[in-house]
Amino acid sequence: MEIEVFTTLNGIPDEAINNKTIIVIDVLRATTTITTALAAGCLEVIPVLTPEEAIEMRQRLEDERVLLGGERNALKIPGFDLGNSPQEYTPQVVAGKRLIITTTNGTRAIRRAAGGRQVLLGAMSNGPAVARVAAAGAADITIICSGTRDHFSLEDFLTAGLLVEELGTQGEYTLRDGARVARDYFRLHRQNPGAAMMESYHGRLLVSLGLGDDVDYCSRVGTAAVVPVYNGGIIKQLG
Ligand code: MLT
């Protein structure tokens, strides 16, 4: 079995999706936020591409449990209930709710992964738990880094490296070159992944917006046991 890592959505061949176990990463912050929301008791998360699609879906669902969340330029979208800070997604706010979310890169990446045999959402927080579930699938694993508007993102690559490292403790894998370099990069920073993430382009943007606490939160390894699974357009906690 193989592990490959793609650093942006550009040029991912269909053969790397179809019939593979996919792990989608947008550690700053979409996949961390979705993991946090599900851990806090949110029933399900529906990822959509645009704010307009989110608003239209809320009208169509006619369900008072629905919340709208997400960001543009890292900030809450006007008229939405929540932004994209994982720390907003507390049990008091999201338990028993359904969340429709749209983010700049993360939700695009999740939608791109549709067609995978199993699609999991990974972050630093749930990396060890996601690796255990992915390894149990006994298939080739494709890790997709969401990147930032089609640019390489250090923080997603670092998280991909954590996943490759964790998968290595679960089974025998052939590492494609992207997976090998991601693992080696994680090893360089394993003592302090938060410091590396603070230096990333997106980490620095979040710090400049006063959201440095989010970077710190998103860099903590193994704090969540929740494994979000995307299936049929909906993300739920693995049951
Ligand atoms: C994204 O999807 O681009 C992000 O999660 C951006 C963010 O809110 O930090």
Structural notes for this entry:
With 239 residues, the chain is of the alpha/beta class. The protein has one domain (2-232): putative 2-phosphosulfolactate phosphatase (Alpha-Beta Complex), CATH 3.90.1560.10. Helices cover 38% and strands 20% of the residues. It is built from 10 helices and 11 strands. It has a 7-stranded mixed sheet, sandwiched between helices. Strands 3-6-4-5 form a 4-stranded mixed sheet, with helices on both faces. D-malate is lined by residues 26, 28-30, 71, 74, 84, 103-106.
The ligands found in this model are: D-malate
Radius of gyration equals 16 Å
Q: Can you give the helix content as a percent range? A: 25-40%
Q: Determine the N-to-C terminus distance.
A: 25 Å
Please count the beta strands (DSSP E, at least 2 residues each): 11
User: Order of strands side by side in the largest beta sheet?
Assistant: 9-1-8-2-7-10-11
Structural class of the secondary elements?
alpha/beta
The CATH topology name reads: putative 2-phosphosulfolactate phosphatase
The CATH architecture assignment turns out to be Alpha-Beta Complex
At the fourth CATH level, what is the homologous superfamily?
ComB-like
Sheet having the most strands: 7 strands, mixed
- What's the number of helices? 10
Q: What is the element string, with H for helices and E for strands?
A: EEHEHEEHEHEHEHEHHHHEE
pLDDT below 50 for ≥5 consecutive residues: which ranges? none
Average pLDDT works out at 97
What percent strand? 15-25%
Integer count of domains: 1
